[in-house]
Amino acid sequence: MEEVFTAQFPSPPRVVRRKAGTGCALMFPRLFMLPHVIVGIVTLLAVPTRWYVYHHGAHVQAIIHKLERRTSRKGGDFYVVGWHYQFDGREYSEEYESMAESEGSHANIGDQIDGRAAAILGHAMFLRTSLDIRDDVMRLGVWSLIWNCFMLAAVYVIWVVPIRWRLLAKNGLTSSGRITGRQERKGRGSTYTLFYTFETINGHTIEARSTVSHEGYRAAFEGAPVTVIYDPRRPKRSLPYEFSDFIVSPAA
Fold it and tell me: Per CATH, which fold does 36-147 belong to?
């Protein structure tokens, strides 16, 4: 029976859609991750931008017009400073630039601060010359690198992997297979895995596994027939179709 179904399975490229409800599970983390990716890109661009201002910016003097002492969540004190300065014939004002307690406690409104300024894509940036240039750029670079490594991993899991499985369902070859086992791993979130065997078009028997949803895990049982959609170049990259998140439209 399963051989007959596989033979009637639509030839690639197929029309593929997700099962109802499975797309929502991806939409929320994708939307949640979007601003975090933007933050990572901005901080990554900030490293060469700050280096450029430090080394090639014009010398200017800013005047403090705001000075507020605040306490962080960890109990440390710092100052929120606002200043304005002249650059290229225009006046710029920057607010909420933080200053360490040791430096801010000796500052007063009206004081002048030495710094460098440069125009980047039509926007001016001012940096104090009192900062340790190498330490500032190094700390920002390390933080940006760590942040973007996490974001790359998240993009791979939330964007690349689902797109890869969808393309596999659309273009992969099909074969009849059988479920050989199931596994549930519990942690912060449960992971459900199905194990199955199938035969490739070249006659090779492949033992594979695939992560599925909770519904797919519950529907599967050892010995159940399954239509396997696989990549002929890497047969272990496959989907147990009946228990996956995809629906293939029937052949015309």
Answer: OB fold (Dihydrolipoamide Acetyltransferase, E2P) (2.40.50)
